[in-house]
Amino acid sequence: MALGFNRLLLRQFEKKSLNTLAAPVVAAAAQPSSLNLLIEKQQFGDTVGDIKSKTTKKTLDFDDGGKLFRSVTTGKLLRSMVNQQMASYEPIVDIGIWVMRSRLVDTRIIRELIMSVVKHTFYDHFCAGENLDEARRTLQKLWDGGLKGIMDYGLEDATDNASCDRNFKEFVKTIETTKLLPPSSVSYACVKITAICPISLLKRVSDLLRWEHKDPSFHLPWKVDTLPMLSDSSPLYHTLNRPDPLTPAEEHDLHQAHQRLLKLSEKCLELNLPLLVDAEYSSVQPAIDYLTYSTMIRINRNNTPIVYGTIQAYFKDAKERLIQATEAAEKMGIVLGLKLVRGAYLSSESQLANSLGFASPIHGSIQETHACYDECASIMLEKASKGTGAVVLATHNIESGKAAAARAEGLGLEKSNEKVQFAQLKGMADGLSFALKNAGFQVSKYLPYGPVEMVIPYLLRRAEENKGLLSASTMDRKLMSNEIKRRLKAVVMRHKAEENMPPTNH
Ligand SMILES: Cc1cc2nc3c(=O)[nH]c(=O)nc-3n(C[C@H](O)[C@H](O)[C@H](O)COP(=O)(O)OP(=O)(O)OC[C@H]3O[C@@H](n4cnc5c(N)ncnc54)[C@H](O)[C@@H]3O)c2cc1C
């Protein structure tokens, strides 16, 4: 029903006819109610008004909605706003998440019905298409609007070598396809290590690395040169007992996984296309960092950052790990590439720690996470200015975007410097993406693609992230609704002006 309503609104609007149905909805959404202002204050510290008035020398401009959303049609703006509005409505999202995780989806007809609803709402909003062709078309539209894309085939975690090999081939296909796209329209390729190394092995390797950190005399015969993955403040509760050494079969599988990552990195080096390695849950992250950093040491030579790891700033040990990695990379003379995110597995991390009777590894408050993100960003921007580091600032947070942009300018970083880029997920923070792009920075949208069922775990994470009145999308919806209201007003004024024009005699 919501979908039909959505379409009806769009059709009416795209014809540019003011209609009685759209007006009250748009007007209500655009109304700067005291509740909206309060929400903005609580989440961001600044309201849109504050952002306008406080900034004297602005690096990012959010004031001029016409300029901000210049390349976005009114229909697309309205569709994005309605989708984000639905995604922020907690009861809808909670029911949706419950249904997706329930046995109901085992029944074929119900499953098909649910998939169809998901496809026409959340999927269309957050994903780039069901296959490479559709994703290419989405990327082309972005590129026309001045943004780059990060293509990501939404693969499942792998359980055995056969699924790792299948996934590896898909990653190669995605990387190769960038040759067919407009030059520079793709900023990065990306890979999930959990798709090219069996999860159980990543857990075993992480256990062994943690034990080695606890007891440096613990010998790991298979370990090659890498950067530090754990710090003294890293949680070790996942590994309470001394783990058994890897069996020859496990060592063989680890070598295979390493080779897959190495081959993908070499392919990227050949195409001069940087490769982002995603971060996952803390139970497997040490092994992911081990594989990433050891590959980085081999590939990121000659001042060229090709392999990028990911740091999740919501972890209490994030900054310490980042500093250790930057120092070790500098000593080795390699450019450390890092993508900086806040982290997407908040509730599962806290639940796991609680279930084992340990404190959560996540910062105690969101303000601490914000501060950690901004400090890590500042460190990496400084490294980028010296040429020893490269950073992808992957965030939807307007304050972090503003702080990083101002710091980059303060450090005198050229906006065309490839070592500093910003990124947001498709369907999120378009206002921030366009403000950064208008200021001259290089900005990408992360474009997950693949069959609907395959990207369900990704969509569930986006649903969790966007739900609630204080969700990340609140400011974005506000910017969009202000712009829709401005365009509506312009149409009304034009209609009025036309009505008042004296009739012309022929
Ligand atoms: C290009 C790109 C790549 C990404 N890659 C990864 C990846 O590899 N791995 C990964 O895990 N995530 C990844 N993400 C997802 C990212 O972690 C989430 O989108 C992120 O949580 C949203 O934060 P934000 O920076 O947009 O900030 P905001 O919009 O301010 O969001 C704040 C979020 O922080 C959470 N939060 C963090 N710490 C706390 C705390 N202490 N208390 C309460 N809430 C807290 C809240 O749930 C809230 O959703 C990626 C995102 C992008 C844009």
TrEMBL record:
**One GO CC term on file:** mitochondrion
Group of enzyme by EC: oxidoreductase
InterPro entries assigned to the protein according to its UniProt record, in alphabetical order: FAD-linked_oxidoreductase-like, Proline_DH_dom, Proline_oxidase
Any single biological process term in GO: L-proline catabolic process to L-glutamate
Keyword terms of this UniProt record? FAD, Flavoprotein, Oxidoreductase, Proline metabolism
Q: Which PANTHER family match?
A: PROLINE DEHYDROGENASE 1, MITOCHONDRIAL, PROLINE OXIDASE
What name goes with this protein? Answer: Proline dehydrogenase
Q: Give the classification, highest ranks.
A: Eukaryota, Viridiplantae, Streptophyta, Embryophyta, Tracheophyta
